[in-house]
Amino acid sequence: MRCIFCKAPSSGSSSREHIIPESLGNKSHVLPRGWVCDRCNNYLARKVEDPFLNSFYGRHARFEMGIPNKENRVPPITGLHAQSKSAVKVWTEESGLHIGPTRKEDGDRLFRSLLTQKSGTLYLPISDLPPPDYVTARFIGKVAMEIMAHRCLDVEGWNQEIVDKPQLDELRNYVRLGRPGFVWPVHIRRIYPNPLSIALRRTQARLSIALSRAVRVQSTDGTGP
Ligand SMILES: [Zn+2]
Q: Considering its fold, how many domains does the chain have in total?
């Protein structure tokens, strides 16, 4: 067997390639061992998947959809609390949305404002759609190559066909080697409404409870007002 990206012999490879990263919640769409060699598997994770997962869109999409990473944590995002003019860390737990200061020195101002004002405004950036840029295009190119291979799971002779097909080399090399500055055209559209705006509408009432909880946590730490 040979790797669908670098074409090197890959029968001895032990890693299984996740078509969509595990950090985006994928547990079942996986290529069997050897379809992508260990070296490419490692490289793609660092150079293609991580930049997408850690981009503005990637972090916000994971937060908005509540997708836990491999450590079972949903990455937090940063928002702005208008009344105290401080940046706040926003994270989710089963009980709802929680906020806390991003910097210790902002803590007093934030909590004083929360304790003394009956209402407040929290600004949260929303990711909307992935930008049609180099990071997104390369990531989608990787997914596309692997989905195509996945579709051929039961087809005899699939390996030689995909590995030796020169028509696939341009996309294969774009994913494997990169081509900074060149954006492979990608089509992006929204299928489902943004989950955060729905969640926020539903949890508006609960947010005030979460805010007072955050105050309690801070107070018991001894760092609160
Ligand atoms: Zn390879």
A: 2
